[in-house]
Fold each of these.
Amino acid sequence: TQRKGRYDAGVMKYKEMGYFDLDYQPKDTDVLAVFRITPQDGVDAEEAAAAVAGESSTATWTVVWTDRLTACENYRAKAYRVDPVPGTPGQWFAYIAYDIELFEPDSIVNLSASIIGNVFGFKPLKALRLEDMRLPISYVKTFHGPATGIVVERERLDKFGRPLLGATVKPKLGLSGRNYGRVVYEALKGGLDFTKDDENINSQNFMHWRDRFLYCMEAVNRAQAMTGEVKGTYLNVSAGDMEQIYERAEFAKQLGSTIIMIDLVIGYSAIQSIAKWARRNDMILHLHRAGHSTYTRQKTHGVSFRVIAKWMRLAGVDHIHAGTVVGKLEGDPATTKGYYDICREQFNPMALQNGLFFDQDWGGMRKLMPVASGGIHAGQMHQLLHLLGEDCVLQFGGGTIGHPQGIAAGATANRVALEAMVLARNEGRDYLNEGPEILAAAAKSCA
Ligand code: CAP
Ligand code: MG
């Protein structure tokens, strides 16, 4: 039996403590969040919303004397709207407004320590999910955002009018540096723009990071000379500490790489630090969202990926994995479109069917290139182009390296399929429905 106390239904006092105000009109400068709350049985939804507002801003479980020493009225977040989730009894959307003064400028760590800090383990809730946030332009402006972004990346690569193509080197683990470099060379020579380290390749006994970087850059240089195109390989600089991350990034730069990669699991401060390094060094920064599904996947608890995408645009990465719809990893078309819009638009209008609860103004912040990866292949090119549009990277790991005729043939198949589909689109053909036909003709023409 649980001890009776303020955490029991009916005894919580967050509404009374000033964290709930249905008359509150959010200010243009407020940070807004919408949470999906599932209160424990018997817990009042409005009180639960007030508790979320309290615990994610100034409150502890009771009134404290020292509140009187602060401008507490402004510092208290306010639940200003609570709506039942349509068709899902027992769940509620709670809208909460936070004064901008609660947050340190240019710090995802500070933002997230408030918004997702304590409150997800709160006893009066069965589950809690942060669905979306509206970041006021005055706060957006404190961040640097992507240093390169979509437009400048295309200019540097001199590649326009089509999605970029990449591949993750497989097997994920175990290759030696030399064999790894061979995969990179074959894939780039065959027609891809990029190759990529996988999320868990760092510096293991079978291949130390320096070996990988050297063999990969040799492959990039040879493939560039061979094809006359700009090529790149995302060298994963993720490491156990920031000093090593910088050391690896510096070495990548010395070798002439145009791009480096990090994993989401390195943490928000590390991401912001390396983004600033990338900005100073004109390096494109690729973010692999390793780990995100542990908290983004469940629909009632965790953090929606749309929030992570917003935070990462602020933090200043240039590429972000954002889903495929048709590949091996979960993701429905509408929600995925919402993620892509967050990356690629200057203004995201509220579109509930795509999961966007607020208008979001990014000002002039550069656009972030979304990356589709995970179980996709050339046979889906019509669907990928239709669903994801032109400003993205399509990455085929198994879908290149698993080609029956070899790696270069796999890369060529992807490039030919893409160019045929883009041509069909540009000619005004119904490329989505004619997709299989177009692909078959393209394959025949290069057989
Ligand atoms: C893809 C991949 C990527 C996932 C990441 C893998 O390999 O290398 O890590 O795409 O997922 O390990 O599965 P394949 P997401 O191309 O061979 O499937 O992009 O959703 O973050
Ligand atoms: Mg992977």
Amino acid sequence: SNPSLLILAGDGIGPEVMNEVKRIITWYGDKRDMPFDVTEDLVGGCAYDKHGTPLHDDTMAKAQEVDAVLLGAVGGPKYDDLDFSVKPERGLLRLRKEMDLFSNLRPAQCFDALADFSSLKRDIVAGLDIMIVRELTSGVYFGEPRGIHVEGNERVGVNTQRYTESEIARVARSAFELARRRNNKVCSMEKANVMESGVLWRQVVTEIHEKEYSDVQLSHMYADNGAMQLVRNPKQFDVIVTDNLFGDLLSDAAAMLTGSLGMLPSASLGLPMANGRPKALYEPVHGSAPDITGQGKANPIACILSFAMALRYSFDAGAEADRLEAAVEKVLADGARTADLLGPEGGSPISTTEMGDAILAALDAS
Ligand code: NAI
Ligand code: MG
């Protein structure tokens, strides 16, 4: 049977950028003989409007069954005052949690045509292609005890950084596997100098490396130095693996090396399913962009590159992912720009659909 996809376009520009992805999925079926079984459903505010919950149980069940989930974005001002338990982002958090998506892949890739967009000098970022692997389901955002309590005559806020050996081991394996498909190089970042969880992190990563991945080149770096090195000389890295908190900060910083939010894809992977494919959710890094919703201004590339990651990591179609990424690179080199990709000197932007048209034309020519 065909590989299956669940599309959850969500709110705001989510459906706008996902429309362009749907056309590309159709193209792969028609032109590359790669048909997908696509199901669509609701997540976020639109799901709340219909069902009173940002993720219906039926949708959750579908997400567990398909080969991959593609998500647009959730949220918007209409939902800002909702109770925390039904906020749109709770739909996304539930997906991550119940699918146990512990490995978050955030590429920072700099397309040559956009190198002048970076906050850094062109020669530091041109050709940059690194991958940050962030542990997504544990660490200080989840550790117990947590809360705000009173001690003596003042309030105290508490969070706990806690990592088990198995939590570290599985994300380390995910990074090493990834490195074998790329340039065989992993840098693990923690703060073993001041944190017990960092000491354990370094021990476990080292053990997994020695036992299972000694062919991969492994280095360790304190995460604060890592932040500095990322902006000083990012091209020294290939795969970076780090915990939830450091990964949150480092991946956001790395993102800005490459320019616009409208360009950044991500993947969140879990354990292999019965068919050998990992549980997987692919989504752009950006949100629902209420300020440009409904105006045809959204850049669909982040969502399109997220589908390219699905081709690569869920469907073993690395060559087809390369084809799609090359099509994006080609249209950028030819000067196609949505509004977010225009520099201060301006120029005339194309619409979301026109960007989709250009990428489809480049695919046809590939
Ligand atoms: P945002 O990412 O939606 O927008 C930030 C800025 O970047 C805006 O000026 C927006 O117009 C621009 N932008 C974002 N994506 C773009 C694209 N594809 N093309 C062109 N311009 C783009 O973040 P913001 O404004 O903080 O949040 C808006 C809503 O999205 C909130 O409700 C927030 O909770 C939600 N959100 C959802 C996320 C998700 O679904 N994963 C992630 C981040 C925010
Ligand atoms: Mg963040």
Amino acid sequence: VLVLGIETSCDDTGVGLVQDGRVRVNLVASQTLLHAEYGGVVPELASREHAQVLDRLVARALDEAGVRPRDLDLVAATRGPGLVGPLLVGLGYAKGLAWSLERPFLGVHHLEGHLHGALAEAPVEPPFLVLIASGGHTHLYRVEAWGRYELLGATRDDAAGEAFDKVARTLGLGYPGGPEIERLAAAGDPHAVPFSVPMRGRAGYDFSFSGLKTAAVRFRDEGHAPADIAAGFQRVAVASLVGTLERAAQDTGLRRVVVAGGVAANRALRAALAATGLEVHLPPPGLTSDNGAMIALAAARRWARERRADSLTVSAEPYWPLGEAV
Ligand code: ATP
Ligand code: FE
């Protein structure tokens, strides 16, 4: 089965091809430079840019895989959550292509995409825990069966990736902040600056990262070295994610855990996860941040389980909690 996956929920255009469960091509056109001068993603600019590059990116993906449009068995796109304009561009394109080729169309939940991206190389079966740590989410779910997501906890303010981005900005680093913080932290002492782990000792599985950003500003103004601030922030951010995950694993008895989303690229996080002794599943390189292959993988697996296509009348869902039917 050859599946085309399209991801346009935010500022990256992703096109992926998955054949028989294996990623063949995964192309991402980043809009980071386009939005850089505005200090954030401008939805209208993002929509227009997606519309401009999508067709060429799909053509290139098919070309690199040596396949023709006719060879596609399924066409999938992200349906939500995300920015409505950008979502509509990808959805409209995918529906049009599916319609013209007379192939099933599948609208995919963005977080289900991140989840399946993390399972690209080792497909596993529920039950498991999944922690999505990305630019917009820090959400911990218990998955008892496919499609059944029980939210155990979530961030009460900033997402983990957002915190990396904001602390990076505080330190005068570039965007996205995650890789920049990780690089600078390697030169710092993680214990030189007295950051404390947010929410430690609290019941439940919620997270909070906005206090770390405020603390980083204060430590910077007190004259601490940027590398020490980066290392200290990364230490407690990782401790919060891994500590909460470990506690949830203990309480639920689920030792199989999946960690997905852009923050899953972080090597300090990966090292801390490896030290837990849990059965940890992480996305391979290229599948951590937004991409089309993860959308194709999620679609391929739903199709294999349920043989269920979506109607061409489904619309974008900018606000769409995982596990809630629309
Ligand atoms: P969402 O999926 O919630 O809609 P998003 O798609 O914007 O949000 P992703 O693309 O999954 O988020 O991840 C981007 C985030 O991951 C950014 O905040 C970025 O700073 C962070 N990130 C990327 N690499 C690293 C890293 N090495 N360490 C920490 N964070 C990282
Ligand atoms: Fe994402």
